[in-house]
Structures are given as structure tokens and as C-alpha cells.
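User: Predict Putative PurR-regulated permease PerM's structure from this.
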Amino acid sequence: MKRGAGPLALTTGEVPPRRPNYFLFGFVGALGVLSAWILVQAVIEVRAVLVYILVALFLAVGLNPAVEGLRRRLHMPRWAAILAMCLALILFAVVFVWAIVPPLTAQVTSFVTHLPQTLGQLQENPFFADLDERYDVVDRVQAALADADFGSQLFGGLVGVGQVVFNALFATFTVLILTLFFMASLHGILDLIYRLVPRSNRDGVREIGDEIVQRIGAFIAGQLIVAAISGTVAFLFIWAIGSAYALTLALVVGVTALIPLVGTTIGALAASLVVAVSDPWLGVAALVFFLVWQQIESYVVSPRVMRQAVDVSPTANITAALVGGTLMGLVGALLAIPTAAALTIVLTKVVFPRLDRR
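Assistant:
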């Protein structure tokens, strides 16, 4: 008889229960928590790279219909169509920078050069003269300009702005290169994803995946068309009122129109503010015009263009854009609506039919 085994254990053949090893449980649990923490920290460290990859993949999927259209209509090989699309993107970026940087540099230089004259003219204004008498505004500005630390602070600010510009250019170049690679290997990436699904479900998953890719491409194409229309309308109006920055402001309005929900408003306010600097009444007229155009775009142009692109309710669009913007900023707002469309397709074709069969 083994020590510790009673008569009942001998007659029934039962083995006495073993006490759990709490140290082993705690050690394994601690290792799991540590591994999860390390994984989260690794994701946080490479979050910028993950955002670049996500944006590039999104652009590759969105530009794929344009690449296929060039390949079919012009009988171009796929690599030539991809190269043409990338050259078009680079050309637009060059034109945008060329239209923005010189006027901005000229305005800043003119402001700094005429600052003393502007202060002198403001002193002749009764309201500003009374304000200056109470709070010594002119003396404070002149003292700040004459301060020895002003130059170093200004230089530090310019260095910070330069770093921001460099980071933006680096991010743009990285996304462009990744987009080029993703467009070249898009079919291979999709086939690899589909092969991860069991053969019995592969055809259904392929059908849903192809529809999601088609919807994302239609969404991007629709957004580009709406942005082009908004930029063209803005250019014609600003050119008609005689502004010297018609092309610059039209590009700003067109680019900001790509931002869901608030993009048109941001572009309208920016353009109206620039026009109002030279002529306040024209600025007011521009603001009224853009408010009217925003209503036309929201209720006439955009619904017609986006009718076949994204079949998502307006409530879901707004919610998705707000959530995406909160989580990932501008990138999240841009990706939120097609993501909501993809989830809608999955719910409609997979989840709801299975629930109805139960």
C-alpha cells in the first residue's frame, strides 16, 4: 500500500487530486502579460510605418480601376499603366507645391517688410490709437522685434517648420513608393489572401473581396471627381473676381474637398480668408459663394457621383468618419467610409444570411 492511499482509493482505483501549482500559473500568466505589453509597445513604435502601409494599400486598391481602364482603353501593359498613374500623381504634387510655396513666401516677405509701415498706419486709426494708449501695443511689438532672443526663437521656429516639411515630404515619398509596389503586386496579394481561406469557402470570399475592392476604387474615383469639380468651380469664381491666387486657392479647395464631412468647409474658409486680406468685401462675397456651392455639392453633385460608389447610410458615414478621425486623425477620416462600406458588405452577404437561417 502506498503511503497516503486509503482503503477507498484502493477499492475504487481513484487517484487522489493533485494540488494546483499556483507558482506555475502565476509565472505563465506573467509571461503572457509581458508578451502582450512588448507586442503593444512594438506596434506603437512602428505605428507610423503601419499607417504608411495602410494608406499605400488603400491608394493601390483605389487607383486599380484607373490602371485597369488605361490598360483596356489604350492597350497598355499593366506596368506602363501603373507608371503613368504614378507620373500623374508626381506631376500633381509638383504643381501643388509650385502653386503654394512661391505665393506663401512672397506674402510672408511682404508682411515682414511692410510691418513698420503697417504699424504706423494703425497708429493713425482712432480705435487702434486708443488701444495702443491703453496697452502699449506698438511698444510691445517693437520691443519683441528688438529682443536678442527673438532671432533665436524665430530660427528655432523655422527649424521646426523645416522639420515638419521634411517629414511630410519623406512620408509622401514613402507612401508613393509603397503604392507603386502594391499596385504592381495587387493581384498577387489578393490571391495570397484568398488562398488562406479553406477551399470550400474560397469562392464566396473571393466574390466578397472583389466587391470590396471595387467599392473602394469607386469611392476614391468619386472623391477625386467631386474634388476636381470643386476645384474647377473655385478657380473660375476666384479668377472672375480678379484674385491673383486663383490657381493656388483652387488647388487648396480641391485637395481639402477630399476630406469627408468638413473638407469643403475648410477649403471655403481658407479661400475666403485669403481673398478677404486684399478686399474684405470680396472675402465676404467669396464666403457666401462657397456656402452656396457647399449646399449644391452636398445635395446635388456628391450624391450623383457617389451613388454607385459606397452603399452606406448617411448616419454610418458620419459615425465612421468621426470615429476614424478620432483614432487616426486625417488618415482615419479618409479610410473610415470605405471601411464602413466593406463592413456593410460583410454584414449583408455573410452575417445576416447566417442569422436568417437559424
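DSSP finds 14 helices and no strands in the chain.
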